[in-house]
Amino acid sequence: MNVTIKATNTTLTPSIDEYVRKRVGTFDKLIDSEDTSARVAVEVGKDTEHHKSGDIFFAEINLHIAGRDFRTRRDGSDIYSAIDIAKDEIMDAVRGYKGRQATMLRRGGQAIKNMIRGFPFRRKR
């Protein structure tokens, strides 16, 4: 998986880089090992230079897998919490997408079975 990390209005320290790579490494279990087009672009930084407190840090994650793009941008009181929140949201989005794909596959299989058996197509509600 190709990982790109960018810092905006802050410096990208080795500890932040390591933290992002560790968190992004959890995407490996959601990505097909044969998908060579998988890539992640992460941008971390501060929204503004003049604010000193509140949710001034952000993390933006763009994930491209299997021809599909997932994107999120989350704010946090520190850079690490923003990264965690964004990572969790991307994970939920990918899991939801994969669940919908599996459901559609099962529905299609059931419709084909019903046609083969000669029953009219029934749709559960």
Written account of the structure:
With 125 residues, the protein is an alpha+beta fold. It has one domain: Ribosome hibernation promotion factor-like (Double Stranded RNA Binding Domain, 2-Layer Sandwich), CATH 3.30.160.100. Helices cover 40% and strands 26% of the residues. It contains 2 helices and 4 strands. A 4-stranded mixed β-sheet has the order 1-2-3-4, covered by helices on one side. Helix 1 links the parallel strand 1 and strand 2. The longest helix is centred in the last third of the chain and has 39 residues.
Keyword list:
single chain; 125 residues; alpha+beta; 4-stranded mixed β-sheet; 2 helices; 4 strands; 40% helix; elongated
How much helicity do the residues have? Answer: 40-55%
Q: Which parts are unreliable, with pLDDT below 50 for 5 consecutive residues or more?
A: none
- What would the CATH topology be? Double Stranded RNA Binding Domain
- Sheet having the most strands: 4 strands, mixed
What string gives the helices and strands in order?
EHEEEH
Over all CA atoms, what is the radius of gyration? 20 Å
Architecture per CATH nomenclature, i.e. the level-2 architecture:
2-Layer Sandwich
The number of E-state strands comes to 4
| Distinct helical segment count | 2
Portion of residues in beta strands equals 25-35%
> Order of strands across the widest beta sheet?
1-2-3-4
Shape: elongated
Distance between the termini: 40 Å
- Total of domains: 1
Task: Annotate the secondary structure layout.
Elements: E1 2-8, H1 14-24, E2 39-46, E3 57-65, E4 68-76, H2 79-117
Parallel strand pairs: 1-2
Antiparallel strand pairs: 2-3, 3-4
